[in-house]
Specification:
Chains A, B: This is TetR/AcrR family transcriptional regulator. The structure is a homodimer. Chain A is an all-alpha fold. The first copy, chain A, is built from nine helices and no strands. Chain A is elongated, with a radius of gyration of 19 Å. The structure holds a DNA duplex.
Amino acid sequence: MSPKAKARPGGRSARVQEAVHAAVRELEAEQGRAKLTVPAVAARAGVTPSTIYRRWGDLHELLSDVAVERLRPEEPPSDHGALRADLTAWARQFLDEMASPPGRAYIRDALLGDPDGSNAGQCSAYAAGQVETILARALDRGETAPPADTVMDLVVAPMMYRILFRPDPLTAEYADHLVDTALAAPDESA
Amino acid sequence: MSPKAKARPGGRSARVQEAVHAAVRELEAEQGRAKLTVPAVAARAGVTPSTIYRRWGDLHELLSDVAVERLRPEEPPSDHGALRADLTAWARQFLDEMASPPGRAYIRDALLGDPDGSNAGQCSAYAAGQVETILARALDRGETAPPADTVMDLVVAPMMYRILFRPDPLTAEYADHLVDTALAAPDESA
DNA sequence: AGGCGGAACGCAATGACGTTGCTTTAAGGT
DNA sequence: ACCTTAAAGCAACGTCATTGCGTTCCGCCT
C-alpha cells in the first residue's frame, strides 16, 4: 500500500512528510532529475536517509508519491453552461498540462514507482472524478450525457496513450476531435 | 538515442548484446525482478559490469531494451476472412498478452528506461503495424475500414490506459466492445 | 590478404548509495 | 501525567554505480 496512508497522521510525521516532499520539488526545480537522489533529498529536508527508505522504500516510490500529489486537480472543472463546452475546455486543459514536459515527467514517475498500481489508479480516479462532475452537471441541466467510462475510453485514454507512447506533439484540435467522437457515440452502458 | 542502434553491429558486440539480453531473461525467470542487478546480469553473461554501464547507461535502459524486444510481434495477425473477425481476434490476443502480469511488467519497463521516448514509440509502432496490416487486408477485400489512427484511439489506447492506470481485470468482452465502437465510428480522417 | 584506426571490452579503484539493527524521541490514548 | 508504540535518528556494513587506463578485436582501406 501507499506510504501516504499514514497510521499516525499528525505532528512530526506530517512535518517530515511535508519537508521531504518540498525537498523533492525544490531539488527537482533547481538541479533537475539527474541530481535527485535519496541522500540529497534527505539532506535538503533535514532528515536522515534511512527515514526516507523506511517510509517510501526507494526513490521511485517517493517520486511517484510526489507526482500523484502534483497531478491532483486543484479545482473542479469550470462551468461553461453546456456539456460540450465543459468537456472541450476540460480536455484541452488536461491535454495541455499532461503533454507538457513536466506533465509527462509526473505521469512517468507516478507509473514508475508503483508496485501495486495504487498510485496510477489514483491518477485515473482524479480524471474520472473531474469527468463525472462535468457529466453530472449536464444531467442536472437535462442534457443527455454518455457514461463516464465512455468518456474515459474515448477522450482520456487516447490522450494518455499518445502522451506516453508517441513523441509527436498534440494539439487542442485533437482534444476537440476526441470530444466530438465521445458525444457522437451512442449512450451504451457496457 | 537507443543503444540498440549499434555503430558496430557484427562480431563481438553482437555476441555481448545477445549474451546480456539472454542473461536478463534467464535471471528474471529464475529469481524474479528483485534479484535483477547489473552486476548479476554481467556475471551471468560473462561480462564485466562496466561494459553494461557503458552500452546501456543503467539497469532501466537495459530492461527497456529487453522489454521492447519482447513486445515485438512475432507474426502478422491471423486472417479470419473479415475485418471485424480479424480486429476482434487481434484485440483479444493483444489485451490478453498485455494485461497479463508479465505483459504489464514489460510495458512498464519499456516506458521506464526511455529518456527520449523512442522505445515507447517503437511499441506503439509495433501495434500500429499490426493494425495497418489488418486494415489493408480489409481494403483489399473491398471492405470499408476506418483509418489506422481511429483504431489506435478507439481500441488500442483504451486497453493500454486501463492496463496502466486501473487495477481492474480486463475481459475479452471489453475488447469486443471496443472493436464494435471503432467499426461503428464514421470514417473520418482527422 | 594484410595492416591500420578506432571503438568496445576487461580490469581495478573509488566514492556514493541502499540497507539494517539498535537507540532515542514524541504522538495519542488511558 | 504516564505508558505504549510507531516513527525518526544514528552508525556501520555491503553492494552498486562510475571512471581512467590498458588491451582486444571489429571493420575498412589499400
